[in-house]
Design a protein that fits this description.
Blueprint (H helix, E strand, L loop, with lengths): L2 E4 L5 H6 L8 E4 L15 E6 L7 H16 L4 E6 L10 H7 L4 E5 L22 H14 L1 H8 L3 E7 L5 E4 L13 E3 L4 H7 L3 E3 L6 H7 L4 E5 L1 H4 L10 E4 L8 E6 H5 L3 H12 L1 H22 L3 E4 L2 H11 L1 H9 L3 H18 L5 H7 L1
Parallel strand pairs: 3-4, 3-5, 8-9, 8-10, 11-13
Antiparallel strand pairs: 1-2, 5-12, 6-12, 7-10, 7-11
Helix pairs in contact: 2-10, 2-11, 4-14, 6-12
């Protein structure tokens, strides 16, 4: 038995947001073994979940809501034991911990799993979409429909359950910038593939944890930061201390997904597997709700502190994307079936975005 994707059954929360989500493949869990045996509903499972996020992040709140639904659907037969803020294992170990049994489930970030999940790093490509809903739906559908993407996870002994909210990249600066070229010579905290975009305009990408950004900005160690969404800014004290916020046109810049140990799922009764599937159908909707909540909070704090909002012109962003050539380089570096993964990723994004009315909290904040 393995986890498969079935035809779409959408939650009301997702349907309210986008008619295009009807194209999504939602997680389906099929029973192991033969032939219609009755599920052993007296069994109980406590799933150990490890995450590098704190307990009040939009990502953790999404999984909390998922876990509550699973517990309700199984009458308490499946519960989740949360370990926040790397208290069980570090972010870089999350995938391996799920494989070797130290955890049953994990938040796995693309920034931390590039070598083990190479096709998953398609989610880090900048300039692909400014719609977090479209990105999350595309990752869901890639897992269902693209063999090369799905096999990346299966080779590690895990299955992708659902994506978590990230939002689009913000650039926070101590001094204003009117175009990408204005970032030249500045030290900008960034991570993953976004660092390549910074290099393309002459900026100096600096690798540091998000918890160090506030002090580094205050001391002048860095001139700005990115690889964060607006929903992250309150968590790290940046929504009341950033004088200039730019919507740079980078769009979605990373991803994290919840994965589960495959053997564990196979050991569950059929009705418990069905509960995991049903709750996973609602996870995109949960995630967007939580992204909005924290993003709106940060927006109010930024506006109250007198932050100046700007955005780069579309023609400047297009030139930036073309000069950087990041997507093309990614296909070359990954080789194999990477081109098919990127093609499907873009197609699924476009299919969803055409019918989606979702607006990232950063964009919504700038429109107020």
């Amino acid at each position: 038995m393995h986890i498969t994707r079935k035809e779409t059954r959408l939650s009301p929360s997702v349907l309210r947001r986008s008619v295009a989500v009807g194209a999504v493949g939602i997680l389906g869990l099929t029973a192991c073994g033969g032939g219609g045996d009755e599920a052993q509903t007296d069994e109980t499972f406590t799933l150990t979940y490890t995450t590098y996020s704190n307990d009040i992040s939009d990502q953790s709140k999404t999984v909390q809501r998922w876990a509550e639904e699973v517990e309700e659907l199984t009458d308490g037969g499946v519960t989740v034991d949360f370990h926040y803020s790397e208290s069980l294992v570090g972010a870089e170990e999350s995938l391996q911990a799920t494989t070797d049994g130290r955890a049953d489930m994990a938040q796995v970030g693309s920034l931390y799993a590039a070598s083990d999940l190479p096709m998953y790093t398609v989610s880090e490509l900048p300039f692909e979409t400014d719609n977090p809903e479209a990105q999350m739906v595309a990752l869901d559908q890639l897992y269902r429909d693209n063999d090369a993407y799905r096999e990346t996870f299966e080779q590690q002994g895990v299955q992708q359950l659902f994506p978590l909210p990230i939002g689009i990249a913000v650039v926070g600066l101590n001094e204003s910038a009117e175009s990408p070229d204005d970032l030249a010579g500045r030290s900008i905290r960034s991570g993953g593939v976004v660092s390549e975009a910074m290099l393309a305009v002459g900026a100096n990408p600096v690798n540091m944890t998000a918890t160090d950004v506030y002090e580094s900005m205050e001391r002048g160690v860095i001139d700005g930061y990115t690889s964060l969404g607006i929903a992250n800014l309150s968590t790290f004290g940046l929504s009341e201390s950033t004088s200039h916020v730019v919507e740079p046109g980078i769009g979605s810049y990373a991803s994290s997904v919840v994965v589960v140990n495959e053997e564990l799922v196979e050991s569950m009764p059929e009705d418990y597997q069905e509960a995991l599937r049903t709750a996973s159908e609602n996870a995109v909707g949960y995630g967007l709700d939580e992204l909005d909540t924290l993003g709106n909070q940060a927006c109010e704090e930024l506006q109250s502190s007198g932050t100046e909002f700007t955005s780069f012109a579309e023609e400047d962003v297009t030139a930036w994307q073309e000069d950087a050539g990041i997507a093309e380089d990614w296909v070359t570096d990954q080789g194999g079936e990477a081109e098919s993964v990127l093609e499907d990723y873009r197609r699924f994004i476009n299919d969803t975005a055409e019918g989606s009315d979702y607006s990232d909290p950063l964009v919504a904040c700038m429109d107020e």
